[in-house]
Write a sequence for this structure.
């Protein structure tokens, strides 16, 4: 079965412990709901650097990555349907980029 990457952009850190607990519960429930399709729950990402032929930039790129998840899905449409439930989408806080992890 094909694997798909969910690449997160945006979102933010919770401002209170209570908000943090609510956010973590939402992520946990969403991931649990994917069952065996979840390959790697992933992690948040720190600030990135962009490496180009001319050097290294500290800006994190045009649309910095804030985290990732890896799932199994039958096709792109199925992967996008799973991504639609992602907590990062609540209130327009962030986006999920979905891409197939191509087998080599």
């Amino acid at each position: 079965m094909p694997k798909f990457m969910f690449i997160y952009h945006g979102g933010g850190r919770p401002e209170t412990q209570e908000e943090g607990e609510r956010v973590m519960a939402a992520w946990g429930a969403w991931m649990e709901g994917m069952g065996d399709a979840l390959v790697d729950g992933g992690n948040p990402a720190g600030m990135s650097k962009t490496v180009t032929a001319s050097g290294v930039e500290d800006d994190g790129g045009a649309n910095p990555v804030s985290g990732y998840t890896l799932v199994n899905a039958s096709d792109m449409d199925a992967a996008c349907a799973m991504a639609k439930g992602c907590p990062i989408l609540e209130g327009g806080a962030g986006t999920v980029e979905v891409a197939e992890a191509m087998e080599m």
Summary: The beta strands are 3-10, 38-40, 50-52, 55-57, 65-72, 94-101. The first strand starts at residue 3 and ends at 10. The radius of gyration is 15 Å.
